[in-house]
Specification:
Length: 433
């Protein structure tokens, strides 16, 4: 009975989120409350086991950092300089935004990257009177693809890297970066071809753009320099987090609180907190509670076990099935709980005679990270971009995103399947014979 009830609440909540007739945060939270009232889990279970407070704290911290920095005009300055560099040409702007997002997501985590970059691209598109949707779509896709390439780029990769001792940062780079680059180039070409007619170059807007003095956007007070220094230190902390042995969340929280303290005389904490995307944070909390219901009744675990039964321990079938199941499933729910359920299952594969598990780990990473591009709730970065866009009155329609996301994920999984098969499965089968 609990399985049916949890599934029903999840499906109805998901449909309401898709229709966008009600606030998505309220829908997700209400679904979580129904799960509580129905006895699927207790409040302690929700707050202690299912809500990922590290993710919430990381998002909150970066929102605080960006809120303060934005008041200095720094992002406006970067936006105008960047647009002037490409002379307002829409296609080069799209390509540049995608490349910067992908690189940033590989070196930092993708959530941090979109938090920094989305406000910039929204300012540029508004200035040039360009539609924001193609750029936001490219940023979401690029953030998840870039995050796939390294161990620190996307939460599923961090979890896999922590679970398997011999998979280092360099291992992820060597094995996932090549296929991520191929998927990225295909995505970029597809988006340029799909939107080239809607991205028209307006000479009048270009002239207006080139006449703007970007330096005038900067408010040169002590807050500007404090913001740049603290933001720089925070990003440096992310880059060297593994060497410092400090969690990403701790780095972000330290930066946010330090900047709040340093700028208290220039901007009050109340003003800063007003700019925080509370709807996005509450939506994340609601989403974690909904998926927690599926975990509590064993639906995610049963899905993982079904993989073993279906493949009967065959190495090639197992690797490809995990790629596709994780890819398709991660488009529906957040990929973090799915990966958490799959890690112990893959470890058990050794008892079925599968000793060489690395290709299966890479399949899980590729499926979970790339599958997040299917829907607006498939990955943390997607939800953050949607929240920032909605806050700027540039709402991304759920269904419209779906129409681009699903085909792209399917194509990404085809490319990944070919890559896994050629690089790992053919050599393995050759050794077997």
């Amino acid at each position: 009975m609990n399985v049916i009830l949890a599934s029903l609440i999840f499906i109805v909540s998901y449909i309401l989120i898709m229709t966008e007739k009600l606030n998505r945060a309220i829908v997700a939270l209400f679904g979580g409350v129904l799960l509580l009232l129905s006895g699927i889990y207790t409040a302690d279970d929700v707050f202690m086991n299912y809500i990922d407070w590290n993710t919430i704290a990381l998002l909150f911290s970066m929102m605080v950092l960006i809120s303060i920095t934005e008041k200095t005009g720094l992002f406006s300055f970067i936006a105008i300089r960047f647009a002037q560099r490409v002379k307002g040409a829409p296609i080069p702007l799209l390509i540049g935004a995608s490349v910067l997002t992908a690189v940033g997501s590989a070196l930092l985590d993708n959530v941090t990257t979109v938090l920094i970059f989305v406000p910039i691209i929204l300012k540029i598109t508004r200035l040039l009177n360009l539609p924001s949707f193609p750029y936001l779509l490219a940023i979401i896709f690029s953030s998840n693809i870039g995050g796939t390439a390294t161990m620190i780029g996307d939460p599923p990769n961090i979890m896999i890297g922590q679970a398997v001792d011999h998979l280092t940062f360099l291992s992820f780079l060597q094995h996932l970066a090549p296929v991520a680059l191929i998927v990225f180039l295909v995505m970029l070409l597809a988006i340029v071809l799909l939107f080239r007619r809607t991205l028209q170059h307006d000479k009048a807007n270009e002239k207006k753009l080139m006449e703007i003095d970007a330096a005038e956007q900067l408010i040169k007070t002590p807050m500007l320099y404090k913001s740049i220094v603290v933001l720089g230190l925070t990003i440096t902390g992310f880059l060297f987090q593994s060497l410092l042995h400090i969690e990403l969340t701790a780095v972000a929280l330290s930066g946010a609180i330090l900047l709040l303290l340093l700028t208290e005389n220039e901007i009050s904490a109340e003003q800063v907190f007003k700019k925080v995307e509370w709807v996005t944070l509450l939506f994340f909390i609601g989403l974690f509670t909904l998926v927690g219901g599926l975990q509590e009744v064993g639906i995610i675990d049963e899905l993982a076990k079904a993989i073993i039964v279906t493949t009967e321990g065959d190495f090639s079938k197992t690797a490809l099935l995990i790629l596709w199941v994780s890819g398709l499933f991660s488009g529906i729910v957040d990929n973090i709980p799915f990966v958490a359920a799959m890690i112990p299952v893959i470890r058990e594969f050794e008892s079925y005679g599968l000793v060489y598990l690395d290709p299966i780990w890479w399949s899980l990473a590729l499926g979970a990270c790339l599958g997040g591009n299917a829907t607006l709730v498939g990955a943390s970065a997607n939800v953050v971009v949607a929240g920032l866009a909605e806050g700027a009155k540039e709402k991304i329609p759920f269904i419209r995103f779906l129409l681009y996301g699903i085909p792209f994920v399917l194509f990404s999984l085809v490319i990944s399947s070919i890559y896994i098969y050629i690089r790992y499965l053919i050599p393995y089968m050759g050794q077997a014979f």
